[in-house]
Inverse folding.
């Protein structure tokens, strides 16, 4: 228990004291995000504020991309603690502690500590993240290998569309392909996120496999990303190469959307069409 | 859950009073006062518990929301902490039998009573002890093993509430629901959509000569959020199936009429079935038919057009050509405006994200009854979580989601409807708008608990008295006494 129950040892008083201690956890007053504070000062954030939650999601996009593991994808659980610091001339840095869930099963997957720096100039947020694993890492690797073998065994190029379908269904055979899409999309979503704009991968509009002579698996995707708060569906073309135990290779372009929010906040458009972002040199 | 939060409120009030008292009197309480108060407090505690506990037990929900956690402690420190936890809290150790037998590397299964679930999980997180939820709701398993009773079958036979239905089927369902429950349900015409389709709502009203107040709930304002109309249908079904047997529903139907709008944005919903699954807006043509759709939830007359919108029809958050420019918006607004003095609660159901949102989106200035709104929303979220462990965030739209003007919920509160909430249902992004149908039932079950918590609170607030003798006066008295006793005794 968070608060020690030093004096409460008598059994017949256990219940009322327990209730008192439960009741002693008064709701904490919300910490409002105040206008510019002294630079360099770390101030507390309401863990449910959009800055904190958004930053936690960005950190997880980064984690999911670097983990390069379709079986080890994580979704945000709850933000437990969050602080933010304004670094003059550089940007805003968030310090976060949050729990995570398995992306599919919503089972508790362990907590993470992360820092997310949103730079003043237009560039991807800088993320540092460390997570505890509740699942056995070996088990995850074995699942990844199993997925890999299943896909490698296909003699014909894998294709698919609308994953999940309108009813939320994902064909079991295409689940690994969808999970890879989530991992790859995490790269796009991480790069495109800002303090004000966040993303969720909504659907694989289409997928086509490119057969390779080496051991890697290569897929061509059209992905729909749900952009908040604009509510737009951004269509992105993504090329992904995967080999278990190796970093994911992702190239992408997203359709240009140029909707301004009518509050002067100036929404940035998605990556302009025509620019290809590469993750690895020898693609 | 209710108990904890009620005591919480009582304690805040009492603490403030005691501080006030101490500051004004400037001396410490006389010893004899302490003894007398202890006695009163003990009586008060027993009294208040006596009121609160039998009520809970009589509903036969002893394990509702209780969870069983599976833990494998890794270090000796973790073992010690777990032993401490089991010995000092009301945790039910299933495996091993005794705290002394807890060992590193060995399976641990503990049943955690619902009110302690979050605290225990927090404690485990703090001590870096990982856990898995083995059983999300012990009562559920208990219920499943009980023989099922014949439920009150007044719902259309064969209508499957655990799958998504196209608009044609929902129209048919509304007609059937009224036909087979005509003593309680009437179907009404609210207005027409831009493509000239009819918008219907259902009124659930227990016949009586008492004047009633109104609870309004609308679903499907955004076309792609299919789980929302699914919930409205589920809600109606649940009320009709249980209004005779469920004490809480019976009680509030004596005082409240329920107005349920299963699909507000009919054109958009149909479009999302036939053309574009992820369509959001209505189907209003703009720019000579080169661009379609206004975001109905930016179109209401609440700081319309000021923040979080676009004036461009191509945007998903296009607010329309003016406040209430859309016939769907007008249909809802005109009706609610007419009935506003009788409407106590406005609920609007969306997806996804798992939020219960309070006013406002258009400003960070809190509404006048913010504290109460938050308190009730937190109660609702707690009730929801008890069902399947789903966690919802609670807060104002502008602080935890985004700024937006012209929302129906903001408008409802601004014209004076005190309890106005937006629900964003499952999930948290994994399936987003395309929630698989196997999640319809659990989503609806848990949301049902949240919504009935709110309705029940509103009912008790505006129609106090009734079966359980919990007048606000006697309750706060017994809470005060019990809290003061415990405070002095510890």
């Amino acid at each position: 228990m968070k608060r020690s129950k030093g004096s409460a040892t008598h059994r017949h008083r256990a219940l009322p004291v327990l209730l008192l201690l439960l009741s002693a956890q008064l709701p904490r007053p919300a910490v409002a995000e105040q206008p510019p504070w002294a630079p360099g000062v770390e101030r507390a954030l309401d863990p449910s504020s959009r800055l904190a939650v958004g930053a936690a999601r960005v950190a997880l996009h980064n984690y999911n991309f670097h983990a390069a593991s379709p079986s080890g994808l994580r979704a945000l659980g709850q933000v437990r603690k969050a602080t933010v610091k304004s670094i003059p001339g550089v940007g805003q840095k968030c310090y976060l502690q949050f729990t995570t869930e398995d992306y599919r099963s919503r089972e508790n997957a362990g907590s993470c500590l992360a820092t997310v720096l949103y730079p003043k100039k237009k560039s991807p947020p800088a993320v540092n993240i460390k997570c505890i694993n509740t699942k056995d890492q070996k088990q995850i690797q074995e699942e990844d290998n199993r997925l890999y073998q299943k896909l490698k065994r296909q003699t014909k190029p894998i294709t698919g569309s609308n994953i999940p379908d309108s009813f939320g269904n994902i064909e079991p055979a295409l689940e690994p392909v969808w999970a890879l899409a989530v991992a790859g999309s995490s790269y796009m979503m991480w790069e495109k996120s800002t303090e004000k704009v966040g993303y969720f991968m909504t659907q694989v509009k289409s997928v086509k496999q490119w057969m390779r002579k080496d051991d890697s698996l290569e897929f061509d995707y059209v992905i729909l990303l749900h952009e908040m708060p604009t509510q737009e569906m951004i269509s992105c073309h993504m090329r992904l190469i995967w080999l278990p135990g190796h970093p994911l290779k992702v190239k992408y372009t997203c359709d240009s959307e140029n909707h301004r929010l009518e509050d002067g906040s100036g929404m940035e458009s998605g990556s302009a069409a025509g620019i290809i972002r590469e993750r690895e040199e020898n693609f | 859950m209710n108990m904890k939060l009620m005591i919480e409120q009582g304690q805040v009030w009492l603490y403030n009073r005691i501080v006030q008292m101490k500051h004004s009197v400037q001396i410490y309480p006389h010893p004899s006062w302490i003894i007398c108060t202890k006695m009163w407090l003990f009586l008060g505690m027993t009294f208040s518990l006596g009121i609160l506990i039998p009520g809970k037990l009589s509903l036969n929900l002893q394990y509702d929301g209780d969870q069983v956690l599976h833990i494998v402690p890794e270090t000796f420190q973790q073992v010690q902490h777990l032993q401490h936890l089991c010995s000092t809290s009301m945790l039910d150790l299933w495996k091993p039998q005794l705290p002394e037998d807890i060992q590193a590397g060995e399976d641990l299964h503990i049943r955690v009573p619902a009110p302690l679930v979050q605290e225990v999980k927090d404690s485990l997180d703090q001590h870096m002890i990982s856990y898995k939820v083995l059983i999300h709701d012990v009562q559920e398993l208990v219920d499943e093993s009980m023989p099922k009773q014949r439920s009150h079958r007044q719902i259309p036979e064969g209508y499957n509430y655990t799958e998504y239905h196209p608009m044609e089927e929902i129209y048919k369902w509304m007609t059937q629901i009224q036909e087979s429950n005509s003593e309680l349900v009437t179907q009404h015409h609210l207005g027409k959509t831009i493509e000239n389709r009819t918008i219907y709502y259902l009124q659930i009203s227990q016949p009586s000569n008492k004047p009633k107040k109104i609870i309004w709930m609308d679903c499907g304002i955004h076309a792609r959020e299919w789980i929302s109309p699914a919930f409205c249908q589920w809600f109606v079904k649940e009320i009709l199936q249980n209004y005779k047997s469920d004490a809480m529903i019976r009680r509030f139907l004596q005082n409240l009429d329920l107005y349920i709008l299963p699909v507000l944005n009919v054109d958009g919903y149909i479009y999302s079935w036939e053309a574009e699954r992820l369509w959001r807006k209505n189907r209003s043509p703009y720019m000579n038919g080169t661009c379609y759709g206004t975001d109905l939830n930016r179109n209401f007359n609440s700081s319309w057009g000021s923040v979080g919108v676009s004036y461009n029809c191509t945007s998903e958050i296009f607010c329309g050509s003016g406040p209430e420019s859309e016939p769907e918006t007008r249909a809802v607004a005109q009706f609610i405006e007419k009935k506003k003095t009788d409407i106590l609660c406005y609920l609007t159901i969306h997806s996804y994200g798992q939020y219960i949102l309070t006013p406002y989106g258009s400003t960070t200035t809190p509404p006048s009854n913010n504290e109460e709104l938050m308190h009730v929303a937190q109660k609702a979220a707690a009730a929801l979580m008890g069902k399947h462990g789903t966690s919802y965030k609670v807060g104002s739209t502008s602080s935890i989601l985004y700024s937006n003007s012209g929302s129906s919920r903001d408008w409802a509160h601004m014209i004076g409807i005190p309890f106005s909430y937006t629900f964003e249902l499952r999930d948290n992004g994994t399936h987003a708008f395309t929630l698989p149908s196997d999640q319809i039932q659990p989503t609806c079950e848990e949301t049902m608990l949240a919504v009935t918590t709110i309705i029940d609170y509103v009912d008790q607030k505006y129609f106090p008295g009734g079966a359980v003798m919990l007048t606000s006066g006697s309750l706060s008295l017994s809470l005060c006494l019990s809290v003061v006793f415990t405070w002095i005794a510890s």
In short: Confidence is low (pLDDT under 50) at residues 1-9, 22-34, 263-283 of chain A. Chain A touches chain B through 66 residues (CB under 8 Å).
